[in-house]
Amino acid sequence: MSDTSAPQKYRRILLKVSGEVLMGDTPYGIDTKTVQSVADDVAEIVKSGVELCLVIGGGNIFRGMAGAAKGMERSSADYMGMLATVMNALAMQDALERIGVETRVQSAIPMATVCEPYIRRRAQRHLEKGRVVIFAAGTGNPFFTTDTAAALRAAEMQCDALFKGTSVDGVYTADPKKDPKAERYDRLSYMDVLAKDLRVMDASAVALMRDSNIPIIVFSIKGRGNLLSVLRGEGTHTVVAQDRAAA
């Protein structure tokens, strides 16, 4: 069992998980074992005393931009993608509550019979009470990604850092799955990410993190216990901050 008593660097964080991560080894949808593994990691963080909120993408079910590329009207496709994030949020809420972690889902698109509407002060109060808050339905507007939603919620919740859990262990010079010579960055500035078009998050999300002075930590969430390790400053990851020295 991991030692959760070690001192933490952050008081409140936002964890952004891509929808594709929840597929596990399946080609589509939600793999319950993978969802439970992420939930177990989140539970460790909460037990350590860190306040945590979540944004989960919807790409394992439906991606708005992909739908638009196939001829769908972009706004309609994006709204479908937002609904996919609600499904993922409910799956994660179920997994967390089954292991005793109090969780609230707040949707940017009101759906009162399913979850709470997004209310900033209520969300902050949930976090202060030690509950996990999952923000669903993106920003509630088409043409904005869940990366931008994560950056926005991190700023609104006054988070100390945004942790982006992906299938790779940081930011690379190229796609490590396609280029074996790709090298991982330990530290980057926001301007490095934007100038080199590294695709850590979309440009608007990176710019918002820069303006809010909130660091982005990119790591692989696929390994059990990786989140807690990276939270302590250990493990393999990439930090994006105002400048390389401060990252």
From TrEMBL:
Keywords: ATP-binding, Cytoplasm, Kinase, Nucleotide-binding, Pyrimidine biosynthesis, Transferase. InterPro entries: AceGlu_kinase-like_sf, Asp/Glu/Uridylate_kinase, Uridylate_kinase, Uridylate_kinase_bac. ATP binds at residues 16-19, 59, 63, 166, 172, 175. One of its GO terms (molecular function) is kinase activity. Residues 12-220 form the Aspartate/glutamate/uridylate kinase domain. Inhibited by UTP. Transmembrane segments: none annotated. Its EC number is 2.7.4.22. It comes from the Bacteria. Coiled coil: none annotated. UMP binds at residues 58, 78, 139-146. It is found in: Cytoplasm. It catalyses: UMP + ATP = UDP + ADP. Catalyzes the reversible phosphorylation of UMP to UDP. Belongs to the UMP kinase family. Homohexamer. HAMAP family: PyrH_B. This is Uridylate kinase. The gene is pyrH.
